[in-house]
Every structure is written in C-alpha cells, then in structure tokens.
Amino acid sequence: MKILVINGPNLNMLGVREPDIYGRQDYAALTAFVRGVCEKLGVECECFQSNHEGAIVDAIQAAYGAVDGIVINPAAYTHTSVAILDALKAVAIPAVEVHLSDVSKREAFRHVSYAGMACEATFAGYGFDGYRLAVEYLVQHHG
Ligand code: DQA
Predict the structure, then answer these.
(1) In 10 A of CB 125, how many CB atoms?
(2) Which of 27, 77, 99, 114 is catalytic?
(3) 3-state SS assignment for residue 118
(4) For residue range 110-125, what is the model confidence (pLDDT) as tens digits?
(5) How many angstroms separate the CA atoms of 14 and 59, rounded?
(6) What 3-state DSSP class applies to 38?
(7) Which domains are delineated in the chain?
(8) Does 7 sit in the ligand 1 pocket, CB within 6 Å?
(9) 99 belongs to the catalytic site
(10) Which residues contact 34 (CB under 8 A, 6 or more apart)?
(11) pTM over 0.85
(12) How far is the CA of 45 from the centre of ligand 1 (A)?
C-alpha cells in the first residue's frame, strides 16, 4: 500500500509557529514520525508540504492512479478551499483529514472543513499521533 501525506501552509513552520497550539517539534520531526509509523505497518509513504493551494491541488491530481490513500492536513486551506475539496472528490482516493489541534474547540471559522467533506474520517487534536491514527485507518479500511 502507498500513502501520500499532504501538509498545507505554515506547517513547515512547526516548532516555531504558535508552539502552545502546535507543539515544539518541527516539520522534519513530523515527517520522521510519519515515516516511522508507515515503516512499522509496511506502508510506502510520500510526504508533501506546500504553502500554495494550487500546488496541493496538483499533488492530489498527480496521486491519481499512483497511491492507495491520502492523509491530508490542509491547514488554513481546510476552512477556505473548495479547490482542494474538488480535487479530492475528482481523484476519489480514500482520504483522511488530520489536524494537530482540536479545531472544533477553536475559533468558529475553524469549525468548517471543506476538505473534510471528501474525507472518510477526521482526527483532530491528537498532535502528531493523529497522523498515526489516519495511516492506521487507511491500512484497516483499504490496505
Ligand atoms: C491546523 C488547524 C488549522 O485551523 C490551521 O489553520 C492550521 C493547522 C492543525 O493542524 O491544527 O494551519 O490544520
């Protein structure tokens, strides 16, 4: 099984960015964590991060026919991007949404998730562990 892990804008600033919300570990630590999880489960994984909405749409389109599952933290684009929602619907690859923080307990504008409408499950508020839960979900349901 092959999984694409997509992280959206400002997640490259992990560790520096609002550490009380997003933690003190950086993006390299996140990708190392995800790779470790995937290795244990015998899953091939590719990690992609971009601050650009169109680049994320391109990555989702390029995944068509190439991966079996998508784990996506669209970051701020979660709450704004119909383009990412449409891309996920277009490729129809099983997708799971992740947020480091519990978006449901934050500002009202974070309560809407467009990308989430095309995802089978959401794990929010578990920090890095949410990515493990998402990979496990995909393995259990689509592996
Ligand atoms: C986030 C939550 C979003 O609301 C925010 O814009 C982010 C990160 C999270 O992982 O908790 O950039 O997706």
Answers:
(1) 15
(2) 99
(3) helix
(4) 999 999 999 999 999 9
(5) 21
(6) helix
(7) 2-142 (3.40.50.9100)
(8) no
(9) yes
(10) 5, 45, 47, 71, 131, 132, 135
(11) yes
(12) 22
